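S1.2 Input.
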Amino acid sequence: MKAFVLAAGEGMRMRPLTANISKSLLPIAGKPFLLHTLEALKANKITDISILVGWKARELQRYFGDGKKLGLRISYIRQKERLGTAHAIGMASKTINEPFMAINGDVLVTPDTLNKLLANYKKHKDMIITGAPVDNPSAYGIIEQKRGCLDCLLEKPEHPSTNIANAGIYLFTPKIFEWIRKTELSTRGEYEITDSIQMMLAKHKVRCITVDGGWVDVGRPWDLLKANKMLMEDLKEDIKGEVEPHTTIKGPVSVGKGTVIKSGSYIIGPVIIGENTEIGPNCLIRPHTHIGSKCKVGSASEVKNSIIMDGSKVPHHNYVGDSVIGRNCNFGSGTKVANLRLDKANIIVNLGGKRINTGIRKLGVIAGDDVQIGINATIDPGTIIGERAFIGPGAVVNGNIAPDSKVH
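S1.3 Output.
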């Protein structure tokens, strides 16, 4: 069986993190986002994979190549104009003429989830749509089913009858291409695969499976933290760097080559630290933290449940909690990130001109690449800082800071 992975989007909802990098290459649990999906496919003996590319295509192709180093056979289909999910999946008709798995590029899946999908197909030989329970079903396409078969697909209903969302993982036969060709533009001006499937129900049975766990919809920057936590639960200890005396390590911790954990550092796993990174002395790193390569977490700094990308530094007297920090950022001494409102309510963020309820109580800062922050700055919960922004010494920042801004 082949797989088709949709990774052509610009990742606009993930800005500012995707301003300079494909969403598929954003790091989660020590690896690029898309690599986790490819490894889950390989674990299920699916090694012939086509990837739909568009935004930052060359960067993505350069990283994964032909897949030989991963034990895969990877080919690419370039989508010049993004016209919706049906149009995207329809492009697979150029290279696929057998049953295939289709996976949205913005969902994270585990091998067990894909194994369940394959087992259902082997048993029934029908096309399959995967569902997952969500807390906010009105924000998703909703699956209604009867006796294990799809009855109806509803796109973001105002009053959903169930909390089972379309998980963006399908198993199709080439018959789907016939219905994609019949699909008309939706009210959103796109060709939607949900419309294709809904039409197909008149003549073809589509089965449903529901996965509870082993799936994360990574649609917003803070979803990276949820995915990071899920993937790190099974982390194994792997220390390749240097650990100086009088350092405490508890739980599973992975440390890359060339990294030095200096005396007095206290690390509570699961934690992943990349290569050639400097940790300590006398700092605290708490669970579900991923620190990239060529980073620094220095004296009297604390990092908790965060992703710090390559080249970024929180070197002196800093606190960073529940945050995602882009590449090559620097926090001045004494800069603190607040991650909890005083009223303990859910964090509200300003993103794309809209106020969005994140549904979570703890969220620090989302910072794009090359953000520079002066000493003793204070960053309020849910702040989003655009790439290359400059935050001056002693500044108090909140809301949405535009790229290339200067805040004093």
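S1.4 Remarks. Helices lie at 33-43, 57-64, 85-90, 111-124, 175-182, 193-200, 223-232.
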